[in-house]
Amino acid sequence: MFVFYKNGILSFSHVESIKTFVLSFGIYAPLIFILLFTLAPLIFFPDGILALAGGLIFGFAWGSLYIVFGALCGGTLSFYLARLYGNKMREKLAHEKLINFQTRVKKHGFVMILLLRLVPLVPFNIISYSAGFSTIRYRDFFFATLLGMFPGVLVYANIGAQSLSFGSREFYISVGLLIVLVVVSMVLKQRVKKRLEAYEK
């Protein structure tokens, strides 16, 4: 579901900066966090950093909820920007590695988005924009996104929440789960690639 690297490096200082900024809004902190997640696709800000910040700021349970809601809002924004502005958006994103969904994928849209969302190594925003350029129905996009991003959300929210107890048993378990998620994602990425190629023939 989420991007783990930015230029190959995950900067926890960004997470701390987001925490300070969000908490400065007091009781409106959850709304500000969701708004940040919604607008993140516009500048391709790494959603992995936001997800870690969500767990750190709000804890595992509430953090997971806000991350899911924010990611759905951000994904929807990307999807409809691509759908409404079409070629103009595609030209603007020419430097990004968009996924080429063929028209026939409309029938398998739910499965394809679900598989891609289960692979955190595939940028969340790229999937959303690419889906918007295709003929995939929004309903399929929405529910596949909702289901597919849960594993990544839970892992990232957990490691963010446990980061305050660095060195504890729970912290190392959360890191272990993250490693498992990345390894599984690498395997799934190859299978998704083969499935996409099969549908495009």
Task: Describe this structure as you would to a colleague.
The protein is mainly alpha-helical and 201 residues long. It has one domain (12-200). Helices cover 74% and strands 0% of the residues. It contains eight helices and no strands. It has helices at 12-23, 29-43, 47-92, 109-117, 124-133, 138-148, 150-162, 169-200. The protein is globular and about 50 Å long. The two termini are 26 Å apart. The model is unreliable at 1-9 (pLDDT under 50).
How do you describe this structure in short?
The chain has helices at 12-23, 29-43, 47-92, 109-117, 124-133, 138-148, 150-162, 169-200.
Key terms:
mainly alpha, 201 residues
Proportion of helical residues: over 70%
- How many beta strands in the DSSP annotation? 0
Overall geometry comes to globular
Number of helices: 8
Identify low-pLDDT runs: 1-9
